[in-house]
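Technical note accompanying the year-one report. For the benefit of new consortium partners, we illustrate the data format agreed upon in the data management plan: each record pairs a sequence with a structure-token string. No post-processing was applied to the example shown here.
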Amino acid sequence: MKRNVVIFLLVIIATCVALSETVEIGLTANSLTGEPISYRIYMYEALELVSEDFDANWDSLRVYDAQNNEIPYQIDDLDGNGKLSSHDMLSFFMLDSAKIVVSDDLSMDLPEYAAVLSVEEVEGGFLVTGGDLDADVKIDNHGFANYTHYKDFEEDVYTELGIMRIAGWKGSTFWADGQLGNKHEEKTSYNFKVNELSFVNSGAVGATFIADLESETFIGVHQIVITQVMANGECFVESNIVFETYTDLMKLQEMSTKALTNVDMDTNKHIMPLPRSMVWAQQLNTTTFDYWNDRDAIEIVNGKPYVCFDALDAMKPLWWGATYIFSSAESWRGNYSEDLGACAYAIAVEKPIVYADFNDFVMGSTWVYESREFREGLFRWMPGEFNAFEATEGNVSTETADWVAHFLPGDNMIFRKIYGFADEFSATADAIEYLEARATEIESLSMSE
């Protein structure tokens, strides 16, 4: 009798296993460097990919590579509620393909994977070490990552990853009465109040931190910064600028600063792809290639031109003091030290859009390189120089009100970047070749059928 009961139970178990179903989310990428590519997805995005009729057991979540080998992953509890919820972030490393698999098998438990980085609380923040970091990463008292402790250098080698520059009309009531006010102010995120700075988790991918910063100048403006220091030596940074009240701005730019300029002032080169659009070139009725070639700032790598010049040289700007401004945002840029063979860089998660219409272009997200800062975002400025050149005369309004970026309560603007520091290069061309390939593979990552 007991034997029959055992057989019956085994049949039930086998039937349940046979009846369990799975949902798969496929991913592909054009792997070019052979190095792991980081992928992340918020749980609310994953939920949207699973049918409401599917009773998923999210503890069953597994990630596999093309050979069905299990890939370690981590889920960061960003809202701090102690349970899996929609705004938590799933991340893992992959090469050319991977799949996320979720089952309705309630017997499966959440897997455990070892942490790869060490996190130590230090004065003014946290220090992250280990993995493939060529320099330690310090999370400062506002939640921004800084590459530090590189070799024997006391100075940081790449700083303030994801800090914002914000400028606008304090207390503007333009939306109500057409008055911008009489006070224009400019601040960076270090002028914001820190409402929260938390170490979230250290897992199979890296160490994750979150900060909630609130402007005391532009009331109701928050910067929510999520920084993941990854085991491969890169940092993922997401800055979500949230508007709780009406705000009129002229600048809203994400930055990273002092890319190797603290440790190499002699052989440090600024490198980037040839801009697809650049106001200064248009004003001279020339191409971006000719603009930079005239300044002896072109390097040919694999038959393709790239911009390369001394990182501390102003390069005879057409006007104003920035080395370049109103230049199209491209896939990557960095500073490369010939003496150190090291490169500090920023890579777009998605290829930036360039608008053909002149007004749309200058009102959109553009690049600036000034004061040893990589800046990207909205730069609303009304230079008389636009009308000083025949090629751009009359292309944009000279009315102040037409340049203001109006943000309403509930609006937000998100910036996402991969920042990195590596010292594996033997020449400027090597760094350019690597960054071109790295950006291409990061941008190629997509869901597969």
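Partners are asked to follow this layout when depositing records. The first strand starts at residue 22 and ends at 28.
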